[in-house]
Amino acid sequence: MDESTLNDTTPAVRKRRLVVPPTQNEPTEDKPEPKAKPKTKAKSASKAKPKAGAGPEQKSKADPPQAEPESAKPPVPPVPPPARKPRIGDSRPAPSQQAPDSEGSGGRRRRRRGGRGRGGRGRSSEAATSTAETRNGSHAPVEAILADQRPLELDDDQLTERRGKYRNGKPLGRYRMCVHVSEGATHIAVLEGRSLIEYYVSRPSDDVSEIYGNLYLGRVRRVLPGMEAAFVDIGTPKQAVLYRGDLTVASDESDDDNGSERKRAGGRRGRSVAGPAIGELIKNGQTVMCQVIKNPIGHKGARLTTEVSLPGRFVVLIPNSSVMGISRRLPSRERRRLRSLLAKEIPDGFGVILRTAAENVTAAEIRRDIERLTQQWTKISELAERSDAPVLLFREPELAVRIIREQFTADFREVVIDDPALFEQVKGYMHAVAAPLVDRIRYYDPVAERLPLFERVHVAEQVGKATDRKVWLPSGGSLIIEHTEALTVIDVNTGRNVGKSSLNETLFQNNLEAATEIAKQLRLRDIGGIIIIDFVDMDDKQQRDKLMSTLNEALARDKTRTATEPISDMGIVQMTRMRTGEGLLESMSDPCEACEGRGIQLRESLFA
Q1: Which SS3 state, helix, strand or coil, does residue 403 take?
Q2: Closest CA to 466 of 337, 444, 458
Q3: What is the pLDDT of residues 242-291, one digit of tens each?
Q4: Measuring CA to CA, which residue among 34, 12, 38, 28 is closest to residue 87?
Q5: Which are the contacts of 376, defined by CB distance < 8 A and separation ≥ 6?
Q6: Which of 81, 152, 235, 438 is buried deepest, with most CB atoms within 10 A?
Q7: 149: closest CA among 440, 345, 441, 429?
Q8: Bridge-partner residues for 491, per DSSP?
Q9: 90 SS3 class
C-alpha cells in the first residue's frame, strides 16, 4: 500500500467512526468503543496515525515523514467534539429528545412506539403510567399535600375542647383504629370497644383497582346514546364509564338544593330525567377531566364523574361550582356557627362542603384547609394544560391516610400503627391539620410486644368470622348471606331460638336482633349494590313498622349512603347501599379454580 492509498482511505475511516457513536445507545456496543476514542484523539501525534490502517508496523517504519503533514491538517481537531456529545450526555432523557431528529431507523421506531401508546390496554398500570409520563414530558401526577405548613396555634380553651376527654392522663373514646402493614398490603381495622365494625384491605402500589378519588384527563372513545353513557380511556386496562347523570355542564349554575336534587334524579345508573342528551355534550375523541367515584369491579370498569372534588381534613373543595354545604351529622347549633364562618371563606369559583371533622374548628383552620386544596387544584390545572390524554393528574394518598383523614376525631381513643414509615407520615399530617390529636397516635412495635398487633386486639378471629356464610345471633337465630353478581341475599332464620312466651314475640325479637346484626355486617363486609333481606314473617303491622325503624336506626350509623323500601307483607325488605369497591370477601379471597366460585362440582360420572 503506497502513500496515496493511505491518504485517500484514512479520512473515509474517520467519517464512518464519527457517524457510529450517536447511534450507540445499547450497552453491548459501548464496551469496545473506549478503545477507539483514544485513537481519534491521538491522531494529532505522529506515532498514533499508523495505527488507523492495517499493517501498523510497516507504515511506521516505511513512511515516518508522512505522519507530520497528516496530523497538521486543521479540519481534524474540531471533528471529534460532535462525536463525544452523545457519549458525554448519554442518559434516558437525551435519546428521547434527539429521537425525532435522528436519521437512523432506530430513532424513528422509538418515536412511533412512544406516540402510539394509548393508556396501556392489556398492560399493567405501572407500564401505562410510565408511558403517559414519558409522552407528557415526565410529568408526575399531583400528590395530596399532607404536611405543608406549620400547625396553627390555638388558645388553651380551644386545645382543651379539641383534645377530647381524658381520664388519669389516658385518652378516652368510643372507637379505636389499628393499622397493620404487611408485605404488599395494608390492613385497617376500626373497633367499637372490642367489636370489629369496619375492616379495609389496601394494596398501596395498585393503580389498577384502587383508584377511587383519582383525577384523570381522559379521552372519550365511544358514546352510547341508547345507554346515556360513554366509555372513557383513562389509562387503565379497562375503559371507564361516564353516565349522563354524572356529566356536569359548564353553564350549570344551580344552587345547592337544586344540584343535590339533580344528582338524586340521576338514579342508580346516573340517568338524567331532563336536559340535553349525552351525544350533545361530549363527542368521540374529546378530552374530559374526570374523577373516579367507583373502583373497577370484576369485568366492569371504573365509574367516573366530571364534578371534581378535592377532599381535605375539614372541607371538600369543588372547583367550578357554587355549592355551600355542611355535614348533616353535626348538631344544628354547630351547623349555624359553621355556616356563618364558611360564608366568609369560600373563594370565588369554588364550592365548599364542610365535613363532620369540622366540628368546633376555627375560621383560621378552615381557611388553611381551603388554601391547601386550592394549591392542589392550581397544580392539577397546570398539569392538565400541558398533558395529553389519557394521563393521571392527581393521586389520592394510600387508604390508611385517607381513612384517618376522614374519620379520626376525638371520639377515637387511639390510632395504633405497626409500621414506622406510615406512623411518621400520619403523625406529620395530623400535626399539621389537627395538632391536639397527635398524642392519640401511637406506634406499636411487634418485636418489643412479642405479639402481632391484630392478635393483641383480637381482630384476626373476628375477620375470620366476617367472611363466613353463616352468622349467629345472640338468642340462637342465624343469618345466611349469599352473594351474586348483581345483588346480595340475606336470609333470617330462628335456628336455635325457641323463645319463652309466644310465637309472635319470639319471631319479633329474632327479627330485631337480625336487623341490628345486618346493619353491622353490611358495614363490616362492605357489601354494596342491591340487597334483599328475608325476615321471618310477622302478621302484626305495628311489629313490622318497629322492625323497619330499628333497621333504619342501625343503618344511620353507617357513613355509606343507603336507601330502604318499606317491608312487604311477606317480610321482604329491598335496599341499596352505595358500592365504591370490592367487598371484604372479594379483597381477601380468590375464586376456586375447580368450581369457579360456585361451591359445587358436577359429578362427571353422570355425564358418561
Answers
A1: helix
A2: 458
A3: 999 898 764 333 333 333 333 433 444 455 456 788 988 999 999 999 99
A4: 34
A5: 142, 144, 145, 310, 394
A6: 235
A7: 429
A8: 480, 534
A9: coil
What one-character-per-residue DSSP string does 175-227 give?
EEEEEEEETTEEEEEEEETTEEEEEEEE-TT--SS--TT-EEEEEEEEEETTT
What order do you get walking across the sheet with 562-564 strand by strand? Answer: 470-472, 478-483, 487-493, 529-534, 572-577, 562-564
CA dist., res. 292 & res. 211, Å (int): 7
Helix (H) or strand (E) holding 493: strand 487-493
Residue that the C-alpha cell 398524642 belongs to: 439
Dihedral, 511, 512, 513, 514 alpha carbons, nearest 10: 50
In three-state secondary structure terms, 269 is: coil
Listed residue (138, 129, 208, 140) closest to 390, CA to CA: 129
CA distance 262 to 215: 22
ω into 93 cis (within 30 of 0): no
pTM for the whole structure: 0.68
Q: What is the C-alpha to C-alpha distance for residues 54 and 478, in angstroms, rounded to an integer?
A: 93
Task: Quote the percentage of the chain above a pLDDT of 70.
Answer: 70
Q: Coil, strand or helix: which one is 566?
A: coil
Supply 324's cell numbers. 355551600
C-alpha distances (whole Å) from 188 to each of 11, 192, 198 are: 71, 14, 8
CA angle 272, 215, 559 (to 5 degrees): 65
| Set of cell numbers at residue 289 | 377531566
d(CA 72, CA 70): 5
Categorise residue 120: left if φ over 0, alpha if ψ from -120 to 50, beta otherwise: left
